[in-house]
Amino acid sequence: MGEKRALLAEQDAQIRKLMCAQAPSRAKGDLKKATVSHLRRLLNSPQRIMRYFQHPKLHDAA
Fold first, then answer.
1. Under a CB-based contact definition with an 8 Å cutoff, are residues 14 and 38 in contact?
2. CB 52 within 8 A of CB 7
3. For 36-60, how does the pLDDT look when each residue is reduced to its tens digit (9 = 90+)?
4. Whole-model pTM?
């Protein structure tokens, strides 16, 4: 379970890094747009997603 949390924390850190790289968004719509953009980027990188599920702790769960 700790390994899964580590992977989720890594994803969260990546989202935060992306958010900090852009100008701070004060409006809810801007924040939503930036989040959707990051999630679309994840959709277009299947190798990265595959690595999440190849982790030994998650490999057994999947």
1. yes
2. yes
3. 888 888 888 888 878 877 777 766 6
4. 0.43
